Amino acid sequence: MKKIFLIIFMMITSIISFSSNTHNKLSEMARSKKYHLVELSGIDLVSIDASVRNDLTLKIKDNRVYGFTGLNAFTGDLGNESLLFEKIAVTKVAGPENLMKLEDHLLYILSESEHYVVNGNKLTFHSKSGKMRAVYEVINDMNNMTKLEDILNDSIYTLKSFSKVKVSTLSKIDRNKLTITSKDGRVSGYAGVNNFFGSYNENGFLDKIGTTRKAGSVSSMNFEKEYIKALSTIKKIEMIGRELKLTTDNGILIYRK
User: Fold this and answer.
1) CA dihedral of 150, 156, 161, 165, whole degrees rounded to 10
2) How many CB atoms lie within 10 A of CB 226?
3) CA gap 257, 255 in Å, rounded
4) Are the beta carbons of 68 and 60 closer than 8 angstroms?
5) Along the 257 residues of the chain, how does pLDDT read in single tens digits?
6) 113 near 126, Cβ under 8 Å?
């Protein structure tokens, strides 16, 4: 009887030890990585503007969690046995009703989550019952990892958002043609009125961009001018799920494959 009790005790101790080590390991795996929200239970993220979706970030550092709701920055404590937001702090910037609703729902889910799991490039939050409530994916900063050419090569990306000039400035037909691709070391695409083409510089960004010479409406020509200027001044490249984010000196460009 004593022998059986000893075996059971050792098994329980091992399970507790494994659970604790697993959490510590997951914490280490998630540290110093920046994540982007791709799924949220109860909210259709596709209905949220792309420029806002790409700001729904989260990072774990020094036993603290730092994130952004689309409107406000927040911080919380990393618990000993699960990811808990016991002392959550949020800035107080107001915004549109749909973003305020998104913020409230996101903070509620994160604060109510009992544990998280890191699997590859995904960080998922789960309820007490084990139901997955939120999914984040690692943001890959491509600036020092690979060239834009490797991303665009034989792939077609469509521009969905431009922070400098609204894509809705163009007609629906022209908006759907705002693509960019690359083949044999050359980049090409459509800028709103004209087709554009160019090459890559030594840093892997676009260089020597030229266009055809068609005329268009004043608004379309203005969009094209600002768009080409942005493509010519790329500073940072990020892949967020299926979306390509280009940070430039003339605004932020977001494409979808």
Assistant:
1) 90
2) 18
3) 7
4) no
5) 544 444 443 433 333 333 333 344 445 556 667 888 999 999 988 788 877 887 898 887 777 788 899 889 988 776 654 455 667 788 988 889 999 999 999 998 888 887 778 887 888 888 888 888 999 988 765 544 457 888 898 899 999 999 999 999 899 989 999 999 998 889 999 999 999 999 888 777 888 899 999 999 999 999 999 999 999 999 888 888 788 999 999 999 999 98
6) yes
- Centroid of chain to Cα 43: 16
Report how far residue 178's alpha carbon sits from residue 189's, in angstroms, rounded to the nearest whole number.
Answer: 7
For 216, phi and psi rounded to 5 degrees? -150, -170
Beta bridge partners of 40: 43, 134
Which DSSP string corresponds to 209-238? EEE------HHHHHHHHHHHHHHTTEEEEE
List all residues 6 or more positions away from 184 whose beta carbon is below 8 Å from its beta carbon. Answer: none
The pTM score is 0.55
- Given strand 89-90, what is the order of strands in its sheet? 89-90, 73-77, 64-68, 57-61, 34-40, 132-138, 122-126, 115-119
Cα 73 to Cα 62: distance, rounded to the nearest angstrom:
17
What is the DSSP pairing of strand 115-119 with strand 122-126?
Answer: antiparallel
- Angle at alpha carbon of residue 223, lines to 220 and 228, rounded to 5°: 125
Please give the biggest Cα pair distance in the chain.
91
